[in-house]
Design brief:
218 residues; Muramoyl-pentapeptide Carboxypeptidase, domain 2; five-stranded mixed beta sheet; two-stranded antiparallel ribbon; 25% helix; 16% strand
């Protein structure tokens, strides 16, 4: 694995994850190029900030469920290729019922160059520590619609409040929100602001971790 990156579960024990793009449960309808295993990869700097967010959430009775972290550029290219294909309707109702797949780029839901590929972005939600139940956020992850915008008025007030809670936790832990997606946050101080990486997410042996993992263990 690229130096400066590690698996999330190695850095932050206790953080739940489900790498959606490594599964069939995503808007393309199949595992995405570059996601060879269902694990989340993050840059060390993002791991530091996410540890702070985890601790803040825990004091309020919540845990973090991470849905995507580092994203290989080949996965972004896969998204772009997919969005240019004719509509087959297989995932439209669940993920983008009110737009054409070709509009995903122009409406800001898919980018040709993603902060995920810089190792600086994280997609996540909250769950309750006492019940393990996901916190309702008004829409599901990757729902490409105005209802997913932070400023949306089309969701119940309690779900809007849950989004504000997540946003407060993340922004007070060194992240910036993204107006079009309530689940997407970018590290304010990016370690690799001008780099777009393309190494695959696979179960190769990690190198260079050593004692650097110790500060993350809880």
């Amino acid at each position: 694995m690229k130096n400066g990156f590690a698996f999330l579960d190695e850095l932050l024990p206790g953080v739940r994850w489900d790498s959606k793009y490594a599964t069939w449960d995503n808007f393309t309808g199949k595992p995405v190029d570059g996601y060879e295993v269902n694990r989340i990869v993050v840059a060390y700097a993002l791991g530091d900030a996410l540890l702070e967010a985890k601790e803040k959430a825990s004091t309020l009775g919540y845990g973090l469920l991470v849905l995507d972290g580092y994203r290989p550029q080949r996965a972004v290219n896969c998204f772009l290729h997919w969005s240019a294909q004719p509509e087959d309707g297989l995932t439209k109702e669940k993920y983008y019922p009110n737009i054409d797949r070709s509009e995903m780029i122009t409406k800001g839901y898919v980018a040709a160059k993603s902060s995920h590929s810089r190792g600086s972005a994280i997609d996540l939600t909250l769950y309750r520590l006492d019940t393990d139940a996901l916190v309702p956020m008004g829409t599901s992850f990757d729902f490409m619609d105005e209802r997913s915008h932070h400023t949306s008025k089309g969701i119940p007030s309690n779900e809007a409040e849950n989004r504000r809670l997540l946003c407060s936790i993340m922004e007070n832990s060194g992240f910036e929100s993204y107006v079009y997606e309530w689940w997407h946050y970018v590290l304010k101080n990016e370690p690799y602001p001008d780099s777009y990486f393309d190494f695959p997410i696979s179960n190769e042996i990690l190198s260079g971790l050593g004692s650097s993992l110790e500060k993350y263990k809880t």
